[in-house]
Amino acid sequence: MIFITQLIYIIDGQENVFHQFEDLAMPIISKYNGRLKIRIRPKNDSIIEKNIDMPYEIHIIQFDTEQDFENFKKDKERKKILYLKEKSIKSSILIQGNEI
Fold first, then answer.
1. Domain ranges (residues) in the chain
2. Residue 23's closest CA among 67, 100, 88, 69?
3. pLDDT value at residue 27
4. CATH number of 2-98: 3.30.70.980, 3.30.70.100, 3.30.70.2570, 1.10.20.10?
5. Strands across the sheet with 57-63, in order?
6. Number of helices and strands (H, E) in the chain?
7. What pLDDT tens digit does each residue of the chain (100 aa) get?
8. How far is CA 47 from CA 42, 43, 53, in A?
9. C-alpha span between 44 and 58 (Å, rounded)
10. Please, are residues 25 and 8 in contact by the beta-carbon 8 Å criterion?
């Protein structure tokens, strides 16, 4: 199993476009043995310490295999909606890890 943690930074004013992308993209995860474990929208009062900009959302997603994750990224339905991602996401940090 692999875990993907993503810190997502949104372009100001594009939150609704991002939500549209997420509404369409999230269901595709399960087609590739993926499970959204948690989706967090952090607030300043929940942070103990930080040395980076506050992300708009943090996602932790689990896939059975790395190949499942690669197949998800190549999904044709997902590729059709990437324009929404590109229009709304300023940047993201993707951290990949394994359960130990």
1. 2-98
2. 88
3. 95
4. 3.30.70.100
5. 34-40, 57-63, 2-10, 89-98
6. 4, 4
7. 999 999 999 999 999 999 999 999 999 999 999 999 999 999 989 889 989 999 999 999 999 999 999 999 999 999 999 999 999 999 999 999 988 8
8. 8, 7, 11
9. 14
10. no
- Record the pTM: 0.90
DSSP summary character for residue 8: E
Asked if 27 and 100 touch (Cβ cutoff 8 Å), the reply is: no
User: With the CA atoms of 30, 34, 38 and 42 taken in that order, what torsion angle do they form, in degrees rounded to the nearest 10?
Assistant: -100
Angle at 72 between CA 71 and CA 77, to 5 degrees: 110
